[in-house]
Amino acid sequence: MWSCVRSNETDDSSDQQVCQDLGLILSLSSLFYLIVCFPIGLCYNALLVTVNLCNKVSMTMPDVYFVNIAIAGLVLNMVAPMQLLGPGYTHWAMWDFNNEVYITLLILFNISSLVIMYSTTLLSLDYYIERALPRTYMSSVYNTKHVCGFIWGGAVLTSFSSLLFYVCNHVSTKIIECSKMQNKEAADAIMIFIGYVVPAIAVFYALVLILRIRKESTPLDQDSGRLDPSVHRLLLVSVGVQFALWTPYYATLLVHMLSGIQGRHLHGQHLRMYYFVRGLSKLLAFSSSFAMPLMYRHMNKSFSPKLRRLLNKLHCGKQGCSQERSPEQQVVT
Fold it and tell me: Where in the cell is the protein located (predicted)?
């Protein structure tokens, strides 16, 4: 939900009409996301995590990273309704949050974005290692689980370091030590560099290395422990979609940072357009929690059989289904 930004300048009717049209577009897009994309993304993220954790033995290295991305997507799903219906988009009294709630939502959003971007980056790097150095177990499931733990820890530390500037910007009148840290542009610069520039460079380097590997068939391709060829397509699509959905958000942070550094704050029509683009970019960022599990569901060949086995197990209970026992009994006979 989005309302027009009031300016000290006298706005003519045409500017107000454009502002209302932009607000209507963003409001309808937000409603569509909350009604359609939000429940689907929440359901598929939960299924992705549940199915893989119930089949830990058959999990591969990409599965661990996608489970990590799905958990971060669940966190985004919790933040999305409060952000899209929050005080930044509507003036409802029931959504009049205080600074503590705003800062908490910002922490969760930043942590989720960092986990998603770095999980995607390390997935591409580990996939290159798997292709270039098979049987070395450098990109094994065991190592990947520990790497994901470091990703969450690093995301928490990084988000808090940048969040310190936001906190001081809100409570600077209460704490004397924060008087020298009222710089929101520094927090944006930290998030842009660590959350986007570094992962983008690493992903580009990994994709260049992957594309340089020759696609000639070798005896190692017949190894049952080798990754499925469909993972290559899933990797390329997921990396492209993630950066396509998150680039506008970091671009708005860059615009805000540069305008603050140069002292040229946006006014009038430019300010309204900036708020519209920022709201739309946040909506696209939230959409990553909807797009990723759907791609994993349709492009990973092993997910559907695992899901059917899990549903059959839940339906039959501990005793097991007779349809599952009959083939085994026939083989024994």
Answer: Cell membrane
